Fold each of these.
Amino acid sequence: MKVIRLHPGRERSLLRRHPWIFDSAVAKGGADPGETVRIESSDGRFLAWAAFSPASGIRARAWSFDEAERIEPAFFRGRCARAIAARTRLDIPSDALRLVHGESDGLPGLVVDRYGDTLVAQFLAAGAERWKKVLADALLQETGLAKLYERSDANARKLEGLGETAGWLRGDGPTELGISEHGWRFGVDIAHGHKTGFYLDQRDSRRKFAQWVGRTGARRVLNCFCYTGGFSVAALAGGAASVTSVDSSAPALERARANVALAGFDAARAEFVDADVNDSLRRFVAEGASFDAIVLDPPKLAPSAAAAERAARAYKDLNRLALKLLAEGGVLFTYSCSGGIGADLFHKIVASAGADAGVDGYIAERLGAAPDHPMTLAFPEGEYLKGLIVVRK
Ligand code: SAH
């Protein structure tokens, strides 16, 4: 077993069971990509078993902090079983859910979503990549399913020195699937959709949005960054007279249109705009438009803490424009999924957007990812998605 020795003082985060070992913490030692290594403090104490990643700034990710543990197939079966069992304690109103959420489930670099009888997995770090076959077998064994599609074509792989790969890993079948969330049918393309196909993390927010649209009697709704129309369907289900959905991806809009039809809503109530959201918001402001409910769910604008400042300006501008478009008593659901922007900073950004727009509002609620995307005590980075419900005064 290869040993990685840390610099003095750099054992602290591991003693708190945080799973990341940064390159700057490593004093000596090396291994192959994904190889299991023994992490030791500068004075030679055992800290963790970890997967080494020579190309990554996160030089190793801990599998276990227990010296007696063996990192072998039975270990991975146990971790998959625990993650899956944790979801059975949640009440998830959908047949699509996240079964494994990486570090939060003790499986760094592994993301697994279930869409009905099909699993979709992303292997995003060297360790998960090395144990791919074992993990695939463990996942099928623990779920009793037979189909697993791989979507390891995410940018994060580059940081680990891994190439892109996608396709059936186990079994075979259609890649255009149907799911039911809150009783609403959605088509999901697991081969070409974003991430694993659907933004499962916004499930609870979509229902909340439908409730707010209903409760406030919102008639005109604007869904910015609509992707495949999750919030658009929610708006119509909540009773909106019309919903305008904006995205710059033509295939996403096409599916959004299909999803509105699938949910059984009159196509005349839904308008789809293939455009940049920034441009559209400016155009709506120039036209003197106004909406009773708005969703602002942009992509990750700050991939790292270093990019946070620039991203903060972009978030602020989007929120300023949206607040200007919001009718009195109207409701804004606004989000950031950037890990580099914490909940406090996001709150400040939206507050300063309000100041610039000359608009005040009640913060009715703080939002986060659905609970099948857990945060843990040891890994605060697991909190990436944050949102606010703002009701205009
Ligand atoms: N709210 C959605 C998920 C949004 S994901 C849901 O519940 O499913 C972010 C979306 O923003 C993606 O669909 C992407 O195509 C779109 N996007 C990214 N940059 C954009 C831009 N500048 N203008 C318009 N859409 C953009």
Note: The chain is about 30% helix and 30% strand.
Amino acid sequence: MKTVAAISLFILTGIVTALWFGFDLSEATDSLNYDDEQEGIEDKVVIKFSHVVAENTPKGRAARRFASLIHERTDGDIKVEIYSNGTLYNDQNEYDALKNGHIQMIAPATSKLTERFPKWQVLDLPFAFPNYQAVEEAYEGTIGRTLLDQLEPNVKGMTFWYNGYKQMTSSDQPMILPSDFNRTHVRIMPSPVIESQFHALGASTTQMPFNKTYNNLEVDFINGQENTLSNIYSKNLYKEQDYLTISDHGYLGYVVLMNDEFWSKLSNEHQAIITQALEETTDWIKRHSIEINDTHLRQIKRTASLDVHYLTKKQRVLWKEAVTPVYEETEPIVGESLMQEIYRLQEKYQ
Ligand code: SIN
């Protein structure tokens, strides 16, 4: 009986205390919710920047550099959130995510725009650029301006970023002569010119997202692929391959895109800071992409047992002859003036 009375008294005291003071949990919740990252979050501008490569590649490093310049120069008022390795969107859906404003910035390989904007195929022509100056002149001159003008409303082309020449890897035989491409099944980016290039060489192809390449090499669905040395190294593609040919048969670079509605709502001051930071980052990636790819080649040679072959001048001529029809097919699509510009660069820098 005594126990029942004690329990009733305890409950009653609890009810009376709660009614008296009210159920004010604010103090407890306040301390749980506090997070200095969230301080002033409503005033912060957030740029979600999605890309598909690893952090230690030219694009991965340029993205981080850009983010830190922006943080420094806006005193943290603009925050660039980087989603690398395709963790937020992959190469198949990042463009639509940008267009629809789910993210504000991407930097896809130019090849990934070629199905939407056929003139962009000009950049994928095999052996289009004899050296890095030719690439630079293409990106920063008439070709780059013409291509950026092709983009659609709500997608703003900011600049081109550099990676490097593409090289061939394979597992069944070294890719030295065009005839070696027979029986090679190659992963390609979604690009009609790249597809024609491999068909002209005698290989078969499958388009697939970048981050599916490793698994498809592992299960032998494909037995070859082309990419820059930094992509081959950072995604371990070389570990599933026996041969690497340094062929420099095409160039892989990027276009940096922003959601235009987002851009036009930024203050003039913020737009100026972003423009300047992008200009500096472009300059940085132009100067460092070659050395990053060279370092990755050294790492590949150090850690892997694959055979590395440098295409000789004669072999290069044979590859070039084999892909000549690709130029003929592409001219009506990209138009005479862009093709003439490619021929002009080839003559100037050959
Ligand atoms: C990239 O460098 O962004 C990926 C290129 C690829 O899909 O091979």
Note: Residues 52-53, 91, 109, 163, 189, 210, 227, 231 surround succinic acid (CB under 6 Å).
